[in-house]
Amino acid sequence: MNVTGSLETFGDIVVFVLSILGRLANLRVFRHFGEVLRQAGILILSSTLVIWGLVFIIGLQCGIEGAYFNRSVGAPAYAGVFAAWCDLRELVPLCFGYMMAAKVGTGIVAELGSMRISDEIDALEVMGISGVTFLCATRLLAALIVLPFVYLCAIGAGFFASYLAVVQQIGDVSSGGFFLIFWEFQNPPDLLYSLIKAMAMAIIIVLVGCYYGYNASGGPVGVGTATAKSMVFNIVAVHIVGMLGTQLFWGTNPRAPIGG
């Protein structure tokens, strides 16, 4: 493993990220707000249903596992705990991160990489348009505008799927019993923390995708290599952010209302 090369690449990513954030901070990106809206529309149309669908499936799985586990210990109503905790704190953020890395991150690399190798980015800069601002900062701002709403709806899809699995499919507990336990283990700070985790993953994924796509070289093969590198980087980053977020928000105080 080339440690020196990896450190240099990480340093280049940091410099590139700071460049994008600088363009957001000084509001240069708003010169191209039409492009921001276009990218937001693309993000909604290309990714929303995929993310919701995966979260729905994982919510079903979490509900089924929780229901059968709690049946074995004689407390079927506590299947709601799995939905309240596992879905919100861990599974939904991870599913969101996986789909962002696989769908959005790789898509950004492929799109920007194809523009790079076909000299479209160079043509923009010849016309006096900053490629980093027009192509990268606009995508990041679009993600910041759209993805919080996409993620909150994904949480709802996961909760609904768990409810269907526990109450309608397996039927070990009534709807009232499920929601009684579910809301006991639910609180607004958890929702906020989960959103912060997911958005941290999303920001990293978009920035890494922009870096690898904007700096792609070597023709179509080079773009494919850059796409693979971004996927590996983002999957590792998703797990690191998930681990650190869980430790930061719930590691020292899980806030479990058990036994008073």
What does this 3D model show about the protein?
84% of the residues lie in helices and 0% in strands. The mean pLDDT is 84. It contains eight helices and no strands. The N and C termini lie far apart (52 Å). It has one domain (30-249). It has 260 residues and is mainly alpha-helical.
Biggest β-sheet, characterized?
none
Count of separate DSSP helical elements = 8
What is the count of β-strands? 0
* Structural class by helix and strand composition: mainly alpha
What's this, in brief?
This protein has eight helices and no strands. The chain has one domain (30-249).
Which helices and strands occur, and which strands form pairs?
Blueprint: H1 3-25, H2 33-72, H3 79-117, H4 120-126, H5 131-170, H6 175-184, H7 188-214, H8 219-250
Helix pairs in contact: 1-5, 2-3, 2-5, 3-5, 3-6, 3-7, 3-8, 5-7, 7-8
List its salient traits:
single chain; 260 residues; mainly alpha; 8 helices; elongated
